[in-house]
Amino acid sequence: MQNRSLVYLAFIILVLGGGLLIGANNIPDGWYASLAKPAFNPPNWVFAPVWSILYLIIGVVGARTWLSFRRTMAMRLWFAQLVFNFAWSPAFFGLHDPAAALIVVIALVVSVAGFIAASWRQDRTAALLFLPYLAWTLFASALNIAILALN
């Protein structure tokens, strides 16, 4: 039991810690403030709590998958989504490149949806836990597309 708890803790620290570190190093700046944004763009304060909750869920799902289905396509897709997730902020905010960020977020959506599909039969709970993440990444894609179109 203790080993399982350590796995969960490690995955949560990896995801939440990595997300916070990347966020702290890719803070929206004057460039972002100057961009035209769509009417459905939420206030900036919404993003940190939403991502924190999602990162907690992503960590839990990663640990579940690691403990039970380590050598599966679902685990590979879980790691892929994390790479794309962590790459989006540096592409958008760091490089000031919404087009490159759009490519990254589309890959993120595909990997999240792929994880859900790959997990559906083996761990329905993990797949269902990723549904809000899929919804948010689809929303983020729409924002990214709108910002690209408006600028």
From TrEMBL:
Gene Ontology BP term (one): tetrapyrrole metabolic process
A cellular component term, taken from the record's GO annotations: membrane
Family: Belongs to the TspO/BZRP family.
Record has NAD as a keyword: no
Signal peptide annotation: none
CDD domains: TSPO_MBR
Subcellular compartments: Membrane
Keywords associated with the record: Membrane, Transmembrane, Transmembrane helix
TM annotation in the entry: 7-25, 45-63, 75-93, 99-120, 127-150
Chief location: membrane
The protein's name in its UniProt record: Tryptophan-rich sensory protein
Protein's organism: Shinella fusca
Keyword flag Ion transport: no
Membrane topology: Multi-pass membrane protein
Short name of any one Pfam family annotated for the protein: TspO_MBR
InterPro entries, per the entry: TspO/MBR-related_sf, TspO_MBR
Entries under Gene3D superfamilies matching the protein: TspO/MBR protein
